[in-house]
Amino acid sequence: MNEQKFLQELKKNPLWGNIPEDFTSFCISYGRIRKYSSKQYLYFSGDEANSVFFLLKGRVQLVLTNEFSEKVIRILEPVSFFPEIVLDGKMYPHAALTMDSTEVLALDRQAFLRYLEKNPSFIWIFYKLMALDLRRAYRQIKNLSIGDARLRLGAKLFSLAHAHGRDGTNGIEITIPLSATDLASMCSLARESVSRILSELKDAGIIQVNKKTIIISSKEKLRQWIIERSN
Questions:
Q1: What does the domain layout of the chain look like in residue ranges?
Q2: Strand residues in 118-193 grouped as ranges (E)
Q3: Which fold has domain 3-142?
Q4: pLDDT, tens only, 142-191
């Protein structure tokens, strides 16, 4: 990847609109392109955080795991920088798992920190990224604290439509393929419960499902559906 192409990829995300002129040169000089197949881990929770990444192609799940279960906390699409949190020098707090053929630009964390020290104004971009990530975390905590399975799934679909939605002729299409199993992991619900609730939403004309593609027919109807079940 040359500097111009990398710059074009970065500017797909509005947060990267005012990057320093030499940042792409730094990334190309110090970074390494790594390619992964589907279902490969970039790192595991608890690993020493030696690298940070730009996702250039494919999709990556950030996953919290323990001995008995795993929970998908975010799904990343290009161009994403991750994990912002390891700039503090501590270990990776979660695992990163590819969902399909994936390319990342890997940067040595120490070299990246040295660049930030020389370009302190650039830190503002990463503050915004971390603030956005923190807001997502707060929203997830709020949604998971709701005991009702319908509210959890409804809130997650609404959030996904906001973060990954694309306007289409039939409504808002969630651009990341999602199975009932994926949604169950995100919402800490049983797969059977998710399948049942998705059927209810389809019957109500609120969503359309075609294999792993979900279309929100009406965001306002979904909002009202959630409100009715929160009272």
A1: 3-142, 146-230
A2: 165-168, 171-174
A3: Jelly Rolls (2.60.120)
A4: 666 656 888 889 888 988 888 888 998 899 999 988 999 889 888 888 89
